[in-house]
Amino acid sequence: MLRSVNGDDFMTEKPVTFKPDTDLFHAIHILLKHKISGATVLDDNRNVVGILSEMDCLKAILDSTYHGTSVGGTVGQYMSKAVDVLPAHMDIVDVAKFLIDNNRRRVPIVEDDGSFVGQISARSILKAIKDFDVPRIKNEKDFYN
């Protein structure tokens, strides 16, 4: 069983982020380059103002195509503005439960003052579980084949 640990012990402290005025196609390029499915959107004070996901990008492109308008704009025009955040020192088990219960892949982490300090993802939690609970495999190549 996973020992109790804080989620911020396993969060990504410097994930890819965007500002609302970031060009949409630049953001899409960054998502593809980093092989990630979304990123937190921050204002100039590092407060979370949105999330831009692959689905938000796809919707922007399809909406523009459907309406016959040129595709483009800013992250702020297409980001999801309803954003859940979690406190920096939340237990990792509670973070995992939050992700599952809310069908999320990642969640921004904030300090008490609301400032963004990182994000934790389902992948981060899986790595934590592997680090703590999975017995070492003699030959990891055999495990992945």
Question: What gap, in angstroms, lies between the N and C termini?
Answer: 26 Å
Mean pLDDT: 84
- In the CATH hierarchy, the architecture is Roll
Widest sheet: strand order?
A: 1-2-3
Tally the beta strands: 6
Largest sheet: 3 strands, mixed
Proportion of beta-strand residues: 15-25%
Secondary-structure content class: alpha/beta
Q: Indicate the overall shape.
A: globular
Count of discrete structural domains: 1
Alpha plus pi helix count: 6
The CATH superfamily title? CBS-domain
Low-confidence stretches: none
- The CATH topology is CBS-domain
Please bin the fraction of helical residues. Answer: 25-40%
The CATH class, by name, is Alpha Beta
Order of helices and strands: EHEEHHEHEEHH
In short:
Helix content is 39%, strand content 18%. The protein has a single domain (7-133), classed as CBS-domain (Roll), CATH 3.10.580.10.
Structure explained in plain terms:
The chain has a single domain (7-133), classed as Roll (CBS-domain). It contains six helices and six strands; from the N terminus they run βαββααβαββαα. The chain has helices at 24-34, 54-67, 75-78, 92-101, 122-133, 140-144; strands at 17-18, 38-42, 48-53, 86-87, 106-110, 116-121. The strands form two sheets. It has a three-stranded mixed sheet with strand order 1-2-3. Strand 1 (17-18), helix 1 (24-34) and strand 2 form a beta-alpha-beta unit. The two termini are 26 Å apart.
List keywords for this structure.
145 residues, alpha/beta, CBS-domain, 3-stranded mixed β-sheet, 6 strands, 18% strand, globular
